[in-house]
């Protein structure tokens, strides 16, 4: 039995930005008796069905955005007589759907690191269960990825995860529900080993693919102290000191290694942490600003963010400590007014952001927003090509609405136009030229302009949606 792992995508470009980490982690979880897993990342090239033989096993990892293509791949594999198994965030939330629409024999919920070998054994013996629960594995059980199986020169950035889960509970994000609110942090040894291996393979840019690189804030520590909760305080201090240990070790790596991560803006109050990041050459971070209004922050359960002057100061602090910020903003919140767009554009310019993204509020399954929206749709939701809009991922991407949640005072078209306007202002040639001063010389300045324009082109106008905007 040959094991295939497929990362589904409608579009293939022959090259991709970031390595899909799950492929290489599951390859590591595949017992040696099965040989090396055959990996297919469809963002590079489409699956060649003739490589799948009857009796093989095909593992398909899906998030909501690529579930539609994933289910097509499942049907192709099943027709060829293979065992079909689904996993990933979307299969975790809707395991039955993978059986109904993806022709799966079984679906795996949660982490695949430990349960995968069991699934393979059960398929070999011809009696897999319908649904497996891989749960949330402990940090010591996270498997380092099989980077030796990575194709040469296909990706620009490698991805290494250092911590999983997030203690916050933002309304548009599923991470805290699926991956849990307890940070599960890997030991620095295993992280460094992976990074060294990736360097040897030629990588210099690495994404620390964490939900939140700053799992313990100073506020968390103060709270535990005030509550006299010694056990909690010690746990938090241990997590924090392990973060510093990891960053010290990253700092010892050769100087041309560059990291990027995702972090909450609370880190701005922890300048020791920011300085350690700079030394570790974590040169950039996506920060979820989300909205500039206090009402908006309340709506998304993100009270730990700031608004107004304090927001500008916090974002500038990152820059002052050598960390470039990619600010992530959400439009379409019920509290947004027409002037929120202008205020956001002005703040994005003022606060020293290097890049910014302006996404539309989208209900992702597993989130509080989704639950509310699904409930509001009632028992007879709108249908697109016969499919309830609350299962929009079961329709081709082109037929999905750009806006899902009606706004109390602005039409979808108005929201879209105003959002585009903010993209246009932030990425006007003049603004980019101003920002490009952060680079050391003219050549770098020109490269910065090119990357900024490319980024804007890739994201704006796609109706791209809320991520775990951290
Ligand atoms: C790093 C990251 C990115 C990076 C890199 C993506 C890449 N090429 O890998 C970037 C920034 C590019 C990105 C982009 C996006 N992302 Co993202 N991303 C993440 C993040 C933080 C980590 C993913 C990761 O590498 N994890 C490490 C691996 C090892 O874990 P894993 O993928 O979960 O896999 C484990 C299990 O799920 C399981 N498993 C996975 N697949 C399979 C398959 C089988 C057969 C089995 C048995 C098990 C199994 O086993 C694995 C090992 O334990 C996750 C958050 C998260 N906690 O997952 C969000 C997350 C996946 N992203 C999300 C979103 C929304 C997006 C975007 C749509 C955002 C946007 N607005 O553009 C885009 C979509 C990009 C695309 N088309 O693929 C959402 C997905 C929500 C959903 N319901 O689909 C997540 C969950 C964050 C969130 N808010 O909830 N992302
Ligand atoms: S958006 Fe970010 S901070 Fe909020 S719960 Fe998700 S990962 Fe945590």
What does this structure look like?
This protein is an alpha/beta fold and 470 residues long. Helix content is 39%, strand content 16%. The chain has 17 helices and 17 strands. The two termini are 41 Å apart. The model is unreliable at 462-470 (pLDDT under 50). Residues 18, 20-22, 25-26, 59-61, 63-65, 85-90, 108, 111-113, 116, 159, 161, 173-175, 179, 209, 211, 359, 364-365, 464-465, 467-468 line the site of cobalamin (B12).
Major sheet: arrangement of strands: 2-8-11-12-13-14-15
Bound molecules: cobalamin, iron/sulfur cluster
The helix count comes to: 17
Structural class: alpha/beta
Q: How many beta-strand elements?
A: 17
Averaged pLDDT, please? 94
Rg computed from alpha carbons, rounded to a whole number of angstroms? 22 Å
Poorly predicted regions: 462-470
Outline type: globular
Distance between the termini: 41 Å
Helix content: 25-40%
Q: What characterizes the major β-sheet?
A: 7 strands, parallel
Strand content: 15-25%
What are its keywords?
470 residues; 17 helices; binds cobalamin; seven-stranded parallel beta sheet; six-stranded parallel beta sheet; globular; binds iron/sulfur cluster
């Amino acid at each position: 039995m040959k094991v295939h792992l497929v990362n589904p995508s409608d579009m293939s470009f022959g090259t991709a930005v970031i390595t899909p980490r799950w492929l290489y982690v599951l390859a590591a979880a595949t017992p040696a008796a099965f040989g090396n897993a055959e990996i297919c990342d469809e963002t590079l090239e489409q699956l060649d069905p003739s490589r799948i033989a009857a009796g093989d096993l095909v593992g398909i990892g899906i998030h909501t955005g690529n579930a539609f293509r994933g289910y097509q791949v499942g049907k192709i594999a099943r027709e060829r007589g293979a065992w079909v198994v689904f996993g990933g965030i979307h299969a975790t939330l809707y395991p039955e759907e993978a059986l109904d629409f993806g022709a799966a024999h079984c679906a795996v919920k949660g982490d695949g690191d430990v349960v995968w070998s069991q699934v393979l054994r059960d398929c070999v013996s011809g009696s897999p269960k319908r649904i497996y629960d891989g749960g949330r594995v402990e940090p010591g059980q996270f498997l380092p990825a099989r980077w030796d199986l990575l194709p040469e020169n296909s990706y620009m950035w490698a991805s290494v995860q250092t911590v999983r889960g997030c203690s916050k509970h933002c309304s548009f994000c599923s991470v805290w529900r699926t991956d849990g609110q307890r940070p599960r942090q890997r030991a620095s040894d295993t992280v460094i080993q992976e990074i060294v291996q990736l360097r040897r393979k030629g990588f210099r840019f690495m994404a620390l693919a964490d939900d939140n690189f700053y799992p313990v804030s100073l506020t968390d520590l103060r709270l535990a102290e005030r509550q006299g909760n010694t056990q909690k305080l010690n746990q938090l201090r241990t997590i924090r000191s392990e973060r510093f240990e990891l960053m010290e070790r990253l700092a010892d790596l050769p100087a041309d290694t560059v990291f990027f991560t995702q972090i909450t803006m609370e880190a701005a109050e922890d300048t020791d942490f920011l300085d350690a990041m700079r030394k570790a050459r974590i040169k950039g971070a996506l920060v979820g600003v989300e909205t500039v209004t206090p009402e908006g922050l309340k709506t998304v359960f993100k009270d730990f963010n700031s608004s107004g002057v304090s927001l500008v100061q916090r974002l500038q602090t990152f820059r002052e400590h050598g960390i470039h910020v990619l600010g992530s903003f959400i439009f379409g919140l019920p509290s947004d007014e027409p002037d929120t767009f202008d205020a956001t554009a002005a703040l994005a310019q003022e606060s020293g952001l290097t890049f910014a993204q302006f996404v539309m509020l989208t209900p992702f399954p597993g989130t509080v927003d989704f639950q509310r929206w699904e409930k509001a749709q009632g028992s007879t939701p709108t249908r697109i090509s016969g499919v309830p809009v609350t299962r929009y991922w079961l329709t081709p991407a082109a037929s999905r609405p750009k806006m899902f949640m009606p706004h109390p005072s602005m039409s979808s078209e108005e929201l879209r136009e105003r959002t585009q306007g903010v993209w246009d202002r932030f990425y006007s040639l003049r603004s980019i030229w101003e920002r490009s001063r952060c680079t050391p010389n003219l050549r770098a300045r020109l490269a910065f302009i090119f990357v900024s324009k490319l980024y804007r082109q890739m994201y704006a106008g796609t109706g791209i949606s809320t991520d775990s905007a951290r």
